[in-house]
Amino acid sequence: VQLVESGGGSVQAGESLRLSCTASGFTFDNSRVGWYRQAPGNECELVSIISRDGQTVYGDSVKGRFTISQDNPKNTVYLQMNSLKPEDTSTYYCAAGGHLNLVLAGTRVCGDWYYGMDYWGKGTLVTISS
Length: 130
Hints:
Radius of gyration: 13 Å
Structural class: mainly beta
Helix content: under 10%
Largest sheet: 8 strands, mixed
Shape: globular
């Protein structure tokens, strides 16, 4: 199984970026899939997730600015990020699968089984300048 993120980069505050995550060896359909992020020295935190029944959840800090969506024929999940702020600067990780309770944030590095997701990408860096 491989999850590959793309779309990261450096932009100024107020601008937008769209992240993509494409899976191979795994089908997003009927699986939970989403995004976490972690900046150096900070917690790994949930940004957004689509549950197995299609419900979406957003972290408090991104509500109203970020939108998660899923294209099942392309086996791709997107994260549209608008009105970006310097505090959004982080490495963003795509994660999928899992049936254990979801952990929304923690001090362990993103990618740890602790968060309840089976598969993780290597991350894409997003840098927002003021």
